[in-house]
Amino acid sequence: MFAALSERFSKVLRDLRGLSKITEPSLEPVLAEVRQALMAADVHFRVARDFTERVKAACLGQAVTESVTPAQMAVKVIHDELAKLLGGEARALAARRPLRILLVGLHGSGKTTTAAKLARHLRAKEGVAKPFLVGADIHRPAAIDQLETLAAQEGVGFLSDRASRDAAALAGAALARALAEGADAVIVDTAGRLQADADLMAEVVRIREAVRPDEVFLVADAALGQQAVDVAARFHAATPLTGLILTKLDGDARGGAALSIREVTGVPIRYLGTGEKPGDFETFQPGRMAGRILGMGDVVSLVEKAQATVDQREAERLAEKMRKGDFDLEDFLSQMRQMRSMGPLGDIMKMLPGMGGMQVGAREEGMLRRTEAILTSMTRRERRKPDLLNASRRSRIARGSGTQVADVNAMLKQFGQMRDVMRMMRGGKGKELMRRMGGMGGGGGFRPPGMFR
Fold first, then answer.
1. Owning domain of residue 346
2. How far apart, in Å, are the Cα atoms of 426 and each of 241, 332, 384?
3. Residues 221 and 355 reside in one and the same domain
4. Assign residue 437 a region: left if phi > 0, alpha if psi is -120 to 50, beta otherwise?
5. Of 117, 121, 86, whose CA–CA distance to 292 is shortest?
6. In terms of C-beta distances under 8 Å and separation of at least 24 residues, what long-range contacts does 26-31 make, across chains too?
7. Is the bond preceding 98 in cis, omega lying within 30 degrees of 0?
8. CA distance 356 to 296
9. Runs of H (alpha helix) within 87-225
10. Residues 267 and 140 in one domain
11. Please, are residues 233 and 98 in contact by the beta-carbon 8 Å criterion?
12. Which one of 71, 247, 411, 430 is least enclosed by Cβ atoms within 10 Å?
């Protein structure tokens, strides 16, 4: 979502590194670029103006220590101010149990899907053992059907009343039943409209009075941009919100809503919907998001994602084989599948420091799929003993994987280079290792197996 903004900030940071001294005249062009970057990302003009003023004041008021350059200090100021703009510290859920959560928002924002994702997240990450979903959208029976299906898929409780014409009474009765059945969290999904009209607001207020929620989350589509800020302000006026859940962050949204909502409404972003899969949902961490925007990566989130998706025992086995230099194509296939289980390669690269600007799109993802097709077209014996792969076997593998023999040869060559590097690392030949790594890929730098041209 923040690709364009990250690109503009990369230029800002490059300009900053050229400064030998922080003065008001030297800062002005840099801050002008920051302001333009924010405005281009659809950030509210007042938010952009106030942000740059705070950065300027902080930079000019900082005492630079000997161990930090003026440029490094300025980068830190921008990171810290960006984190504050996004909400400061991540806010924990209300401590009361059973926990009562009300979801509100416009039609099409993804409320119903988000309700199921939130239930899954609470059970997996927040220690909630028995979440219940309540379908209170009496205007759209399909929404109740969808929520019931999602609840069954996630194995969580579900309650609703398709015959009811009173959303507040339905929500109150369902809450009482859920609590009687031992629920320790109840998530109420409400109706939406194409716009925030008076009828919708009145219904939300009645449901809130019936449920008395601990948390009221507005579910907003990140693609709405500044409209999302206006929607948040209207809902917040009708029923005080405790947070926002931004959805569809995997789309082409410019990110202005995420950077403006907290400043304009005072309501913090609490969760992010990052994709279509049930697990594409995470707690919003302002500091980590600031790091991603500035191209500093988000290694903590990457580690958490790996812990949630990677088979630890298999990872340790592969690490040991790599350490010994005893890594075959069977191991490489396993490693590739584990990496792909973490999500799109582009998303992973953005979490690595300095790699946020790397363009990883359909071409690179296609290369990985092609490599996997080549590997799965081999027999297990061939993967374990790559030396068996003579010309006829390579021709058969190319036909089976829908690729060319040249593709098979390129992948095997780069795998061989990677295995040589592992063996050299084991032998401690540091200078030879660096020479070989620099020469891989025809002078173009090291390219992992599977990323062949």
1. 304-439
2. 57, 18, 20
3. no
4. alpha
5. 86
6. 27/56, 27/59, 27/60, 27/74, 30/74, 31/55, 31/56
7. yes
8. 7
9. 111-125, 141-154, 167-180, 198-211
10. yes
11. no
12. 430
Identify whether 267 is part of a domain: yes
Could you report the per-residue pLDDT of 337-371, keeping only the tens digit for each? 777 776 666 666 555 544 444 555 567 677 888 88
Facing residues of 217 across strands? 103, 243
pLDDT single digits (tens) 392-416: 999 999 999 999 999 999 989 888 8
One domain, residues 217 and 350: no
Distance between CA 151 and CA 131 in Å, rounded? 10
Residue where one domain finishes, among candidates 86, 115, 133: 86
pLDDT digits (tens, 9 = 90+) for 13-59: 777 776 667 788 888 888 888 888 888 877 888 888 998 998 888 88
CB 109 within 8 A of CB 220: yes
In a domain, 145, yes or no: yes
Residue 156 shares a structural domain with residue 41: no
Q: How confident is the model at residue 271 (pLDDT cuts 50, 70, 90)?
A: very high
Any domain includes 447: no
Structure tokens at 314: 């298999």
Q: What is the mean pLDDT of residues 170-194?
A: 93
**Domain termination site, one of 294, 325, 356:** 294
Helix (H) or strand (E) holding 245: strand 243-247
Beta-sheet pairing, 215-221 with 185-189? unpaired
Residues 333, 118: Cα–Cα separation, whole Å: 33
For the segment 240-255, the average pLDDT, to the nearest whole number, is: 77
Q: Is the domain of 103 the same as that of 235? A: yes
Residue 448 has a pLDDT of: 43
Same domain, 38 and 118: no
The reply to whether the predicted model has a pTM over 0.70 is no
